[in-house]
Request: fold
Amino acid sequence: MEVVQSHRKSSSNNVIVSILPLYRSAPPLEVRLEDFEFFAIDRLRVLKGISDGLCRGKKPEEMEKLVLDLWKANMRHPQAVEEVNKDIISHFVLRLVYCRTEELRKWFLSMETTLFRHRFRWESSEAQRALMSEFKLPYKAVSNAEFESLKDKLGQVARSMGQTLAAADAIFYKVPFEEVPDLVAGRRVFIHKGHAYVAINQVVSLVVTQFRSYLSKALILTNRKWTSTIREQEKDRLTPIVEALCTSYLGPDYSQQQEFGEISIKDIDQVAKTSFPLCMRHLLEKVKEDHHLKHGGRMQLGLFLKGVGLKLDDALAFWKAEFAPKVSAERFDKEYAYNIRHNYGREGKRTDYTPYSCQKIISVTPGIGDHHGCPYRHFSEENLRAALVRMGVSSRAVEDVMDKVHNRHYQLACTLTFEAVHGSSCDAGINHPNQYFIDSQRVLQSKNGSVA
Amino acid sequence: MTKEQADNGRDDMVIDGPGQANDVPDEFNANYLRIYYGKLFPHADMFKWMSYGNDGKHPGCDKSYFGRREFSFTLENDIYIRFQSFNSVTELENSIKEKCPFKIDIGPVYSVDPAKRHAYAQSGDNVFTPVERELVFDIDISDYDDVRYCCTGADVCLECWPLMTIAIKVIDTSLRDDFGFNHILWVYSGRRGVHCWVCDGKARRLTNEQRAAIADYFHVYKGNENGHKKISLPGLVLYPFLARSYTEVLKGFFEAKLLPNQNLLASEERYEKILEMIPDASVASELRRRWQENKRASMSKDDINIVRWEQLKSILQSGKQKMQGLRRCVEEIVFSYTYPRLDMEVSKHMNHLLKAPFCVHPKTGRVCVPIDPNNCDEFDPTTVPTLPQLLEELNREGPRQDAENEWDRTSLGESVTFFRTSFLQPLLKSCKEEIENSYNAKLQQSKNALSW
Reply:
């Protein structure tokens, strides 16, 4: 890691006018093996930083600044040519790293797309137009007559976002709504009869859609190449680096509990009290209270329990017993057992599913009747305070936790809760409910050890 | 089924049934279902629909299209068989008649025949993947339990069903006017809600991301069990779709129907839920004071709900209340109580299964008939034909020579005719055009490629 430090140059004042690469083809450059790795690690820092930011629910303006800072800190080089090379090389290395499973591809695609979106916005308008033409976007600006007829609606959309419609010469592009899903999802664009009217300052969405679909296809191709040739050819050189790089972000896989062995049904209540994070305690309380949980809750709690060490047979018995007052054994076997076996990789695709990370839990949108999600993000303040008190968090600490919540640092809020409950620090922070569990068990064991 | 139940059923039939000529108990059972699938279920129409014109003779037809569609059956004993596929209308019909499924679900069209998916699984790549799927929506009345006092859970009556009717109006209008879709089928789900199938070619080929964007566009109600603010409408004005929904559908329905019918402001317990939604405590307590005082002073003939609603509106919308948040509050209350609540997950993913139209709901015995969105006010879930009723109608006239259109002499006739003339025929017409156009375009392309 120190080597990487020496590589990082402080960004100088001379602003680099760089053309944002579209990464159409792998660079015909000679790359030193160490650069191969260091460049990738630097880019990974950027992507990981973006991922953390998204996960904390940062607002667009905050993301804008965050991405710029990350890029400056990790990727800038005083010489434009070097920066472009590093950009391209690191991107292609990470493509190899993140092409190998659906999960990895999805993460990489989403982070690279976010990065691209922001970098596009930093470009001058000439550079933006150049990029647009490189994508060969076939869209024409809306004619004056059409603009006049839609002016009221376009103005209404602008005002609904707290903006005002630009002057009469405002340029809008008329595109199929499918091309700008992010604008449609946020109701940030007027749509009529299948066409979205995209304002000039929103064209980034169009370009990003193109970038994303191109990269998505490219990742599938890379994966094919990787499995068919590269992995074998490079088994002494690149393959070990590539394989190591991906775990350097992903962290441990919590699908199988090793350190603390198995737990049985009768232990669940006890360990829940001492070592479950709030999201899981809440789900457990609800299933005991309602004798039911909706799908999202069953997945979140079920996979967590698997990671904690609950074996399949015990998991089936656990859910069956909890649901029993409402769901007959027969109905349970028919409607619910399949999904539980599925989670343990015994049905369907036969993948051993991994427990959800904090990032995933924070990003869901629980609906009516749902109890899953991250309490720090999804509870009302009142409910959260009450839940923290029930966990035994002191009123002082509750204020600290709420402070993090107000700033949307949900994982930090959970970390503070951990520290308050356990009376010991958690320097790494909480990134995963199963990590919370393991760290908690470690703390408890060392306490017991010192007493004995 | 015990004897007693059977007798009760017969009594019910005598009361409700249109005629008492035949001895058909008012119960759902497998034997009736078998007759229904044998004589009434429109197999050929379902096949025509799911073929989207590819069963024709045109060289542009994709012969494998129907055979790549997943059907899944739930049998009498809750055995669930997924990934079934059929190569012709006869195969489909024979299988349905033979297995007599209590429920038929329709899944996506896959890249390869879903029944043979394992044969493709070894290659490692994701060859088996959904490629087309109608854009679907699922709305359940059980998600409205916090705004209706007449029924809970799966129960529905004529007091609360209009919530479904306005959901149809709001979504249908937007799908047509905003998104430009034309081939939309609304279906009664047989018990507690409605399903929507958007079948335009464009809709069937949407990616998951684009589906999610449309679902989010419609997603206004954001309640979960532990948060509290359910709807928040920021911005200076409402987005055009929301404004239109409000003025054309929601406001009128809320004031004329929901408010008086559900007595939303008549008792303290109920009006407190509305007062809770007013962000300004002094305004809320002013209203509370007035309403507590005039509890006894009955406003003669004026409905108390309406009187109080007018008071609430005048205080919130009076010139004195300059605060933006309060102005929008009336709209937020109306949206909270009336705006459609979609099951988001169903719409977001291509591989979600949805119950086929014309199935019979095993709990109610009612057929999942299409609903005409242009006359959805007239739709009455309590008069939808039931299985026993249909069989009785069949029996009444005795067997006939031509067994083709048996439904003509039952109350299902109207539904099948509506399905054909209002949905299937226009759909197939545009499918035919689409197939021809894309075939001609391909021909043109290959010609151009030859003539340099």
